[in-house]
Amino acid sequence: QVHLVESGGGLVQAGGSLRLSCVASGPISAIGRMAWFRQNPGAQRESVASITKDGTTNYADHVKGRFTISRDNINTVSLQMNSLKPEDTAVYYCNADIIDNRELMNNYWGQGTQVTVSS
Predict the structure, then answer these.
(1) What whole-number distance in Å separates Cα of residue 48 and Cα of residue 57?
(2) DSSP 55
(3) Using an 8 Å Cβ cutoff, are 113 and 91 in contact?
(4) What is the mean pLDDT of the chain?
(5) 117, 86 Cβ separation under 8 angstroms
């Protein structure tokens, strides 16, 4: 029953900012890499940003310098999105490698949060 829940999406004007949060819950022993992906209808899901347990971050070229991923606490990851563009419009998904209480590692997805950037 491990699951991820995203929040913070919404409608924002171009140039504005949003902060997305993802909270992992359930029978969790440890959380490794966490990441944000996004997907538009009819398009493939693409990686946006990721952060390892030791804090190493990675960003897609189109969001580099505008987005910041961070680990707020042991079970929470955030994505600060600044200078938003209409092309950033998508459903944003949280993704994480999680070891459960049975010491079994799995990769989990949240259900997504909609981000819409108007021109």
Answers:
(1) 11
(2) -
(3) yes
(4) 96
(5) yes
Of 32, 113, 18, 11, the residue nearest 74 (C-alpha): 32
pLDDT digits (tens, 9 = 90+) for 4-17: 999 999 999 999 99
- Distance between CA 110 and CA 35 in Å, rounded? 11
Which residue carries 């949240």 as its tokens?
110
Average pLDDT, stretch 32-45?
94
Q: Would strands 57-59 and 67-73 be described as parallel, antiparallel, or unpaired?
A: unpaired
Judge contact between 90 and 18, C-beta under 8 A. Answer: no
Calculated CA dihedral for residues 37, 13, 42, 107, nearest 10 degrees: 10
Phi, psi for residue 82 in degrees, rounded to 5:
-115, 165
* Pairing between β-strand 113-118 and β-strand 10-13 as defined by DSSP bridges: parallel
- Structure-block tokens of residue 81: 């999105």
| Distance in angstroms (rounded) separating the CA atoms of residues 110 and 119 | 28
